[in-house]
Hints:
The structure is a single chain. The radius of gyration is 29 Å and the shape is globular. The chain is built from five helices and 47 strands. The relative contact order is 0.11. It has a 22-stranded antiparallel barrel. The chain has a five-stranded mixed β-sheet with strand order 9-14-15-12-13. The chain is 4% helix and 54% strand. It holds the Pfam family CarbopepD_reg_2. Residues 309-775 form the TonB-dependent receptor-like beta-barrel domain. Residues 1-21 form the signal peptide.
Amino acid sequence: MSQFNLYVVLLGLFLSYSAFGQNGNFYGKVKYDSNEPAVATFIALKGNSITKETNSNINGSFTFKDIPYGEYTILFYSLNDQPKTVTITLDSKNKEVNVTLEVAALDEVLVRSKTVQQKIEEKGFAVNVIETKDAAIQSIQVNELLDQSAGVRVRQSGGLGSHAHYNLNGMTGNSVKVFIDGVPIRNFGPSFSLNSIPPSLIKRIEVYKGVVPPHLSDDAMGGAINVVLNGITKNELKASVSAGSFGTYRADVNGGFRNNKNGFTARGSAFVNYADNDYEVWGDQVAVALSAGTPDVYIRAKRFHDRYRSQGGKAEFGYTHVPWADKLLAGVLLSNMDQQIQTGATMEIVYGNRFTEQNTNMYSLDYAKKDIIKNLDVSAFASYSRLNRKTIDTIATQYSWLGHPTSYYNDPDVWATGAEAGNPTLQKDIDQTINTRTNVAYHLNDNNTVQLNHLLNTFTRDSDDPMLPAAENALREEREYLKSILTVSFENKAFDEKLRTSVFGKSYYMNRTSKLRTRSSNSSTATISIEENTISSNEFGFGGSISYSFSPKLTVFGSAEKAIRLPEANEVFGNVAANLNASINLKPEHSNNYNLGFTYDNLQFKKHTFGVTANGFIRDTDDLIMQLPTGSNEEFFANSNVGKIYTEGVDLTLNYNYNEALFFSANTSFFNARDYNVTYDVNGNPITPSYERLANTPYFTMNYNLKFNTKNLIQKGSTLSSYTNLLYVHEFFRGSSVLGGSGKTIIPSQVSFDAGFAYTFPKNKVSFSFDVKNILNNQLFDNYALQKPGRGFYGKLTFSIL
């Protein structure tokens, strides 16, 4: 279905809808019997299959707008006063309801309202919601929080600043999209990543596994991670500093200001990260020849060329919560990074002089308004970003894991190519990206909503390398990429919002053009020419979700989608700084995704509270894109379509707390991803598929987290939180289950054990935390036996300035 046809469908839905009956408004004030305004009173309206919730403002005022005429019950709850119920008929355009709350005879009134997390989980998608309030004071990275979530495995190639990608229920790489406030993170540049954003800047993290809600209008075939940053609700300024092992230092500051009279808002954040990453590595890829002609000897060595530095700042100015806009913010983001490169795609190739520098400038405009006209909500985001990247590799000296050139006591060995990773290079890349995202929602009534979501992304890259011969460099390369995704969806709530359904259709359009140098040679001559390549695709997908709440504690959910994932620009065009080769002919991925699960939460027995969430899933994928090492020495990466992969699995989460002081959570994830590609014999006859496990993919993980809070320790009003986390990853195949050299086929089972504490001083102005990571100092691997840091000690100080 073309995008034009989708617009026609949407227009038909709008034209075919007409409102019957009359609507009006409830308004009024709530006060205490002392005649003072009842601020932040929870108010619920029920009737005519409608449920609405709100809170009284600083003057005790409240409103319910656009309510169909009829009889309603309005409930008022306050912590200090008796709850009150009013039954009233709406039969005019405006109906005033004023209420006085009386002092409660009970010592305590229990008020229950759905949290943001519950509202997200009830929409039928397989989703984890990670709250970061407690983690914000720890010496912890966002990737570590994600690694503790059911069904999520963060694949990182080293210490702070190293490349990371995410595995959700067997789907990995760019099949899993990452967003910042609903905006694809690729626009922010590599130095503004989940690896560098401090948890203190984040309000919550939403992890969608498999089917992704339509408002995240991107081609997220395997799932999505949406990071919701802190908004500005009051004038504040916070900062934190941390330091730890392997020369790790981090600092961040964030704050905001809002003028309550005119709505002018300014907010910003900044961070600095530094790490030497000089941790110890060992194993079958860390070997050296102690003298010329002698066999290799396995040693324990420190990484000596892996320094990482990044800085970034983000500022927004505009207006929030004014009559003409919920928000209108102009933003600028500046970030830069420089990083030494220690290895190739594996630890067998060691570098001592190769490094990369890059910086990103991004400018944005963000607008949102509910009821811009009656029942119509609109939001839009537009950004332009420019990334400048330079790769420096001009010295041919060979290095070993001893940290100095090979043949150290004689003349150093040199690479015949003239540099450590091939030909000498000072390549400069300029990547320019334009991104727009538009969401329009029309509420047919309180229970039915039609949405239109559109994402447009364009990418261009200009490259220049002064180290190339002049004639070759004169053959200018070109890379252009355009992606457009249009989504139309319909959402329904029924049976007092117990049943929620959503259906959607997606149109995917992509066009990419490249002009790249190619080298052809024979025994006597070599010819360099430009090869042009243009590929387009226009595809359609669809899906839906459903959930039913049998009670406030038990919800069953399911979702399904025919999903398409378009190759990303970096996958197609490559990245010299990341040792990633171009893969010009990559095809889109296709997958049929299914989820079915339930949540049984808030089971209480005296002071004990229990909860359980389970999710089963199936992924039937064609042309899965995977990033794999290439070449005889596995120095570089390349992306390839690996064919048909069938995955089925389950993840389970258990939660327990005692008296809101002792918290325990456990999650387990298991999936079985098998290769269903058919091979053929010499006569062209099909042979039974191999059914091998998907290479380099951990398929069984467990995570256990225990936390204990102690109040009023040393000082009244203080809180001491102590916590431990245990992660187990079962052994998995590094490559094919039947191929690979001795000692390289399997990455062994891994256990990571962390512990720490955080002390928050009275008034919550200052917090101090101390963490010990990988206490057992075990070898930890993610990607092709690239070892991660061993035991490390980290401290962090967080304080509120305003």
